[in-house]
Amino acid sequence: MARPAVGAALRRCAECGGYEYSGGAACSVCRELVDGIVESEWSAFLREWDADRDQEAALAAMVVSEPDRHDWRVVDAALDRLGCSACGERLGRGPVGCSGCDLAHGFRYAAIETDRPGVPPGNEHAVRVNVSVVRRPHATSDREALARRLTLPLVLVGFLPSTEEAQRLSALVKSSSTAEATRLVERAIEETVARGHVGVWGAPGKFISSGHE
Ligand SMILES: [Zn+2]
Ligand SMILES: [Zn+2]
Predict the structure, then answer these.
(1) Which residues surround ligand 1, an ion (CB under 5 A)?
(2) Would you state the pLDDT for residue 11?
(3) Which parts of the chain fold into alpha helices (H)?
(4) Tens of pLDDT along 94-118?
(5) How many domains does the chain divide into?
């Protein structure tokens, strides 16, 4: 399974107990699900090019040289297949301050982000930023990484936090322990899902439907 469909019901992860995709690096099931978002698109890309696994590195180098011509998942998968000449890690996922990785990480945002039908504009960008942070958590503060992984399941099914909601959640995550933040964000997610339709995720009472039903 590549990723949940727009409007799909959220499911609990059997390993970490949170919503699927939200467990971060500590949960092997969630980690594989998140990697699968990127990997399934790469497999499709290989099939499209009729490429063998031994041609992957050459294809990856080509993709990374022109990130603005490929879907973000293909670019992220390509980066994973290349080593950083400066630190030896997978390109773009090395330590903060590695010039090779910082440069590659910046270029990944030139990639194409295509919103799925029925989602508020910018949802795909939110998905890609959250996935990027979840897969490279050491490059951001632990509170930011927590907020990104906890909200990933909701953006995957098509919601988009409004600026206000994103700020409210970020403040809530910063002021709470990890367990408390998890509980509060999950409650916010439940309230949003209970309102029923995919759209912009606003403060209570200010939910704005995307108009696509
Ligand atoms: Zn999990
Ligand atoms: Zn590096």
Answers:
(1) 13, 15-16, 23, 27, 29-30
(2) 95
(3) 28-48, 56-65, 72-80, 99-107, 123-135, 142-156, 163-174, 178-194
(4) 998 999 999 998 899 999 999 999 9
(5) 1
